[in-house]
Amino acid sequence: MTDFTMKVGDNGVAIITWDVKSKSMNVLSREAFGDLEACIDEVLGNDDIKGAVITSGKDTFAGGMDLNVLGSIRADAGDEPAQALFDFTMMGHKFLRKIERAGMDPKTNKGGKPIASALPGTALGIGLELPLATHRIFAADNPKAKIGLPEIMVGIFPGMGGTTRFIRMMGAMAASPFLLQGKMVDPKKAKSAGIIHEVVDDPVAAATEWVLSATDKDILKPWDAKGYKMPGGEPYHPAGFMTYAGASAMVNGNTWGVYPAAKALLSAAYEGAQVPFDTALKIEARWFVNVLMNPSSSAMIQSLFINKEALEKGANRPDVPDQSVKKVGVLGAGMMGAGIALVSAQAGMDVVLIDTNQEAADRGKAYSETYLDKGIKRGKVTAEKKEAMLGRINATTDLNNLSDVDLIIEAVFEDVGVKAEMTKKVEAIIPEDAIFASNTSTLPITGLAEASVRKEQFIGIHFFSPVEKMALVEIIKGKETGDRAVAKALDYVRQIRKTPIVVNDERFFYANRCIIPYINEGVMMAGEGVGRPLLDHAAQLLGFPVGPIQLVDETSLDLGAKIAKATKAAMGDAYPASVADDVTFWMVEEGRLGRKAKAGFFDYDEKGKRGDYWTGFNEKFPLLDEQPDLIEVQHRLIFAQVLEAVRALEAGVLEDIREGDVGAILGWGFMPWSGGPFSWLDIVGAAWAAERCDQLAEKFGDRFACPALLREMADKGETFYGRFGPKAKAAA
Amino acid sequence: MTEAYIYDAVRTPRGKGRKDGSLHEVTSVALSKTVLNSLKERNGLEGHAVEDVIWGNVTQVKEQGGCLARTAVLASDLDEIIPGLSINRFCASGMEAVNLAANQVKGGAGDAYIAGGVEMMGRVPMGSDGAAIAVDPSVAMDMYFVPQGISADIIATEYGFTRDQADQLAVESQRRAAMAWEEGRFDKSIVAVKDINGLTILDRDEYMRPGTDMQSLGGLKPAFKEQGEVMPGFDKLAIMKYPHLEKINHIHHAGNSSGIVDGSAGVLIGNKEFGEKYGIKPRAVIKQTCKIGLDPTIMLTGPVPATQKILKDAGMAISDIDLFEVNEAFASVVMRFQQAFDVDPALVNVNGGSIAMGHPLGATGAIIIGTLLDELERQDKETGLATLCIASGMGAATIIERV
Predict the structure, then answer these.
(1) Measured between beta carbons, which residues in chain B are less than 8 angstroms from residue A271?
(2) Which among B136, B138, B232 has the least Cβ separation from residue A249?
(3) What's the rounded Cα separation, in Å, for the pair A217 and A220?
(4) Residues 221-250 of A with CB under 8 A from B
(5) What is the DSSP string of A205-268?
(6) Which CATH superfamily groups domain A4-298?
(7) Which of A177, A162, A170 minimizes the C-alpha distance to A288?
(8) 3-class secondary-structure state, position A105
(9) Distances in Å between the alpha carbon of B179 and those of A573, A706, B208, B386?
(10) Which CATH superfamily is domain A327-507 in?
(11) What is the pTM of this model?
């Protein structure tokens, strides 16, 4: 069984069809390379064949490379992974060049056979790099098709000629959104960008016709013709100089310098643009391998691609029949409830949006309307779709409308009493087999479940704000939560196309458990007299989207004070006194609650736009004469979070470190380049981390004390993925 | 030990480095030739008089490419037996030429050298030779490359200099330069630029704006704010390198930064025997030279570590120096120098500097050594220190002592 099959028609045109039977979308495997090459060799060697069309047996062309391939090459290569990856990449280049040169005479550029691509739909990554090597690309007029090179989003860059060909096709400036941001476009836009050539109804027919009439000139790539000039200029052309100098600065600034793939991509582009095409491919391959050999790229592929997908596909779903949600009741039409209603309706569910008065319920529904209107403006939503979606949301005060829902998501005021009352009222109305979920962010699920008569059907589904943007949903199992409730929550999250993690019930669950110490450490340092710009920039230089000081202004100081008070009440005398609390309580007293008060650690203008750091702060908490070095600040910020993640694993809050990693990146933007807290610990090594804990604990206190688990792993020389990863789990 | 003496120092007036500048019609070769011929003539040099001509020049492409130093020697009245060496240490190229020559003489590699430089900034634009540090991602990104104007603004931010202070320094530079010209303080060294028929093209620095005051400078917009804050956003890189800074304070503009000009200068350096042979008197000894590297992002603080090192190497203290020339690449560079060493501003750049008269990159290092010597003689003082900041994060300095 091969992934590529070839049929030669009476007209002498070979139709090569890519169809990976075991997958819904084609991905390129190691073996398939050879299959395709055999087809191409036959096309070029057989005098009866005039040319070829490469197409797909599915309604899409291909989703890209099977990312496990790269890992397997590395693993198989033993001591020489760089050589193996380089050889593999060069083999790919050589093969794609064989297609591109199509047997033409190297001197006269004559006598080659035309090879066209016919894309029925989506073509991404190597699924586009292959067509780029052919002589003409025909795509079906399919507005849902996505065409692009999204490699950068998982920490690598287009390394099968995509980088080199894009830059030579359109110039560095025009190529940058596609290469550096992984921009994907529909076929029409791809045509106007110069990525593909034709948008037609029947791409195979059009491509076949073209193959039959193509001349030597038609199949010669500009870069193989004499007198080729790079669009926009090469790096030492005056125009190119500005582009390349600007690109280095912008990419560095926008990424805070933490993504090795972005740097490598730019180097491949810069160095490649100064040499002939085949040399440029070799340079592209060297930088590609350099990125693959960087632990960050493996970690990113692992967390952001492989593990994220595994979690979305139900890696930790109990073996329970399909629990897809048809009708959901959302209790509370505030910001969270309104967002939950929106994403549920978007996923095709019927939604009953409940609030205590009709006006509030309507306001919650209006949130969806505003959102959809924005979509219409941007051409992403049609008026019909908007009407259909709004039609699915029933905004009401009447709980009786909940009589036929199969899932409740409660998003009312964060108060045990209020929630208990709602639970009782609603459970009396909803079907007996409906699942009841609470979107609490702070209250233990087991406690809330006490109000429920069906505790095994009670669960936490914790959304992040804003709901429609944040990709993570944290599912919390109470002590008595049953498997069906977990499956229901997971199926719901799959329906709304978000990524779930399933955790056990302890104070602040997983995400907030880690975010709070991060914010506290930042606030504490500010109180100690560390400059606030250094604190925020230190975090951003690690790859966090916002620093702790800016973050606390966003989440508000009074929330911090509330959490501190509640934690203190819960812990009693064990609660450690902290400068962070002094700062927080003082800020609250001063009315500097954060952005919502237009006054916090920053000043804000009347419109709420953030200005400079508020100078009054350092009058109360003076700056240290000797500021700490950047690394020390960064280690305090990282360890505050990472140690909490390890403790969550120790305490059984996390059952799967993949969830700890994926959840951290999607939930609060934890250093995506690191692959998450556990991947980061694996990169730096448990031994180093344990030693650093000791140093930090000695200097800054017991909150940095090395968790027993980490100490044990340091002693044994273990890694988290070695001990707790999916393979170790499967073996156990 | 053999000493290296300065026997003579000349410079051309500086023309505006623009299409309407007076020297725009003059080639780099012709301007270099003006200086070389003047040194030959003034000192009666004959035949193999000097071992080499070391010529500082930054943008070595087009007419300034192809070892301009050798071309200039051949175009001049000097004997063809004298070779030529073009060198580039950015803004300190002219100083590096002098320092190299001095150390060659001290080491016994020849009796005498002509050292100096040229830059026709209007004819061969700055940056037109390319620069990997700005454009090669493998260096630009790791080094947090920013253009010099941003670096100058980083210095202002890091060391707390205000726009007003920078403008005051610029006003003072203009005042001093105007006064120096008025009193003829440059007469000894200026060699007029003439055409092929002996007609004068330029005999006076033309970039100066006498009468510049705080008000006239106040209207100028910060020159580097746009590229810092918007496109492509160099301030972000400054913050990445200096994360304790909240934001960059953009204080520099055309009026408090060095001027883009055309110009050339040369210094005649030799040992004792050389002077005796030609019957000329040494004016000063080149006591110590130095160059040093530093963080390329802040880039322009070089005069501070260069001065610290040269004083240490010479076994001297800052108080041993009578007069200073600190190249006015940007106002903040000079302010940082004064702040670091707490020297009397009256002793620094006595006759104005590059803000008023312009900064022909390859020549300035030689110009300020000549200007320093002239002023030491005028004030009858002994010891002077000249220093420059340098692109890509370097610094250079020279200490001279009258004999």
Answers:
(1) 136
(2) B232
(3) 5
(4) 235-236, 238, 241, 244-250
(5) HHHHHHHHH--TGGG--GGGSTT---TT--TTSHHHHHHHHHHHHHHHHHHTT--HHHHHHHHH
(6) 2-enoyl-CoA Hydratase; Chain A, domain 1 (3.90.226.10)
(7) A162
(8) coil
(9) 76, 70, 11, 21
(10) NAD(P)-binding Rossmann-like Domain (3.40.50.720)
(11) 0.93
Nearest Cα to B207, choosing from B9, B26, B362, B20? B20
Structure tokens at A526: 């500010």
Whether the per-residue pLDDT at A730 is higher than 80: the answer is: no
Q: Which of A245, A271, A630 sits opposite B140 (nearest CB)?
A: A245
Structure tokens at A674: 């690191």
Q: B374-401 as b/e, with b when 16 or more CB fall inside 10 Å?
A: bbbeeeeeebbbbbbbbbbbbbbbbbbb
- Which pLDDT belongs to residue A569? 86
Which of A713, A714, A715 has its CA nearest to residue A723? A713
Q: Do B136 and A533 touch (CB under 8 A)?
A: no
| Residue B332, Cβ density class (10 Å: 0-12 exposed, 13-18 middle, ≥19 buried) | buried
Could you tell me the maximum CA-CA distance found in chain B, to the nearest angstrom? Answer: 62
| DSSP label at residue A303 | I
Q: What is the DSSP string of A451-508?
A: G-S-GGGEEEEEE-SSTTT--EEEEEE-TT--HHHHHHHHHHHHHTT-EEEEEE-STT
Alpha-carbon gap, residue A109 to A98, rounded angstroms: 13
Query: Is B315 exposed, middle or buried, given 0-12, 13-18 or 19+ CB atoms closer than 10 A?
Result: exposed
B231–A238: do the CB atoms touch at under 8 Å?
no
CA B361 centroid distance within chain = 6
Taking the CA of residue B127 and the nearest CA in chain A, the distance in Å comes to 10
pLDDT digits (tens, 9 = 90+) for B200-225: 999 999 999 999 999 999 999 999 99
pLDDT bracket for residue A732 (50, 70, 90): low
* Residue A7 per-residue DSSP state: E
pLDDT 10s digits, A131-185: 999 999 999 999 999 999 999 998 999 999 999 999 999 999 999 999 999 999 9
Dist CA A608 CA A599 (whole Å): 9
Q: How far is CA A671 from CA A301, A319, A697, B309, in A?
A: 14, 33, 23, 42
Tell which residue, B394, B369, B398, has the closest CA to residue B9. B369
Buried (b) or exposed (e) across A558-575, using 16+ Cβ within 10 A? bbbbebbeeeeeeeeeee
Whole-number Å distance between alpha carbons of A712 and A370:
53
Q: Residue A664 is encoded by which pair of tokens?
A: 């951290």
**Per DSSP, which regions of A484-643 are E strands?**
499-504, 602-604, 610-613
- What is the rounded distance in angstroms from the CA atom of residue B243 to the CA atom of residue A247? 21
Contact B144 A533 (CB under 8 A): no
Mean pLDDT of A425-445: 95
Q: Return mean pLDDT, chain A.
A: 95
Q: Domain extents for chain A?
A: 4-298, 327-507, 512-726
SS3 A424: helix
Element (H, E) at A165: helix A162-180
Buried b (16+ CB within 10 A) or exposed e, A327-344: bbbbbbbeebbbbbbbbb
DSSP single-letter state for residue B257:
B
Q: Can you list the domains of chain B with their CATH numbers?
A: 1-123+132-398 (3.40.47.10)
Burial group, residue A216, by CB count within 10 angstroms (0-12, 13-18, 19+)? middle
For this structure, is B91 an active site residue?
yes
B250 tagged catalytic: no
Nearest-by-Cβ selection for B134 from A245, A537, A627: A245
Distance set, CA A591 to CA A599, A623, A651 (Å): 7, 22, 37
* Class of the CATH domain delimited by A512-726: mainly alpha
> Rounded CA gap, B232 and A157, in Å?
22
Q: What are the Cα distances from residue A353, in Å, to A371, A400, A425, A604, A608? A: 16, 12, 15, 35, 30
Altogether, the residues listed in chain A come to a count of 732
